[in-house]
Amino acid sequence: MRRSLKFLLRPTAKQAAALAVCLEDHRQLYNAALEHRRTAYHKAGVSVRYGDQSADLKHVRADDPRGQGRWSFSSQQATLRRLDKAFGAFFARVKAGRTPGFPRFKGRGRFDTVTWPKDGDGCRWDSQPEHPTATFVRLQGVGHVRVHRHRTVKGRVKTIAVKREGSRWFVVLSCDEVPAQPLPATGAAAGIDLGIASLVTTSGGGHLANPRHLAATADRLAAAQRDLARKKRGSTRRRKAVARVAALHATVRRQRLDHAHKAANALVAAYDVIVHEALKVANMTRSASGTLDAPGRGVAAKAGLNRSILDAGWGVFLTILSYKAESAGRELIAVEPRNTSRTCARCGHCAKENRLTQAAFRCTACGHAVHADVNAAINILRAGLALREAAKAA
């Protein structure tokens, strides 16, 4: 299995400055490569590929030995591949008939990661293994940077990336051949329904709370954003205000991730088979239809629902649950979500009127009354077990 691990870096002041310069040079390389592609196509109708720009990279480095020439050749190739991937996604959207979104130039706040594709090529994880207490990662042009390693790294380190989040620096390891850690069988299966009031409701009637981290921080965040709006662009005070807003968002993100990990661990420890809805969160959180002149009905309500869904972090939770289930040897099944909340788990009658409120379910055919999320979770479990049996019979 492949897993990603993220650790906090503890750079010295000199190393932090070098990391910032490294990130800025890679951003400029990305933007220059994008400009090269745009100009070649508009002026001569020529499409520039990754191979062409990678071949030109040695000349760029030779002409700027104290700038671009300082950094790892492989990391610069990874930046060019990042641009090539953006163009690939653009053409895929064009082909599919969706809104294309042409690749954009990266501002200082829009480029935060540098990647080294191979451990040992311009970088080295655990570069000082003889050190008795600390772990270091060596980065070309930066040096040996201390790492706050809070967990054991298992498997083989394949790629290393450095990411800036606010004023902090992190190293992200992508590891291959990570051994599975199967848990003892429990013999239990559960369907789970994701919601707003409770993040997870199980078919057995259990509820895992939704802490609503963004809502809890909303007042502080609104005050910080108002303070930011009053600052003059380009000023030192504005940069500090931007950092405060970013720090609040980072806190919410870490809280949401922590809760998702704990909720996923609880489910994986309790059940051998977990069934969930195959939710398309991006589609569910699209804006309500309408224009600026005719905004349509329920736009404010839809915006509030979208905010609540994103605050709950359904997509993040399902991603974490997926890899934890794989590592623990659990079976995870995704089912079609259509009508799971409208169908009676007792008699199978499906009607919109069955759902009285967000929490109340009463079947109009048989009178069965139960919590709406529990009813949906039971339907999800049944659908998943039916898919499982069909797959075994095939």
Automatic annotation (TrEMBL):
What's in the keyword line of the UniProt record?
DNA recombination, DNA-binding, Metal-binding, Transposition, Zinc
Which Gene Ontology terms cover its molecular function?
Answer: DNA binding; metal ion binding
Q: What InterPro entries would the database entry show?
A: Cas12f1-like_TNB (IPR010095), RNA-guided_DNA_endo/Transpos (IPR051399), Transposase (IPR001959), Transposase_put_HTH (IPR021027)
Cas12f1-like TNB domain segment(s): 314-380
Q: Which GO terms describe its biological process?
A: DNA recombination; transposition
Transposase putative helix-turn-helix domain: which residues? 1-43
Q: Where does the Probable transposase IS891/IS1136/IS1341 domain start and stop, copy by copy?
A: 179-287
Protein name stated in the entry: Transposase
Annotated source species: Planomonospora sphaerica
Q: Lineage of the source organism?
A: Bacteria, Bacillati, Actinomycetota, Actinomycetes, Streptosporangiales
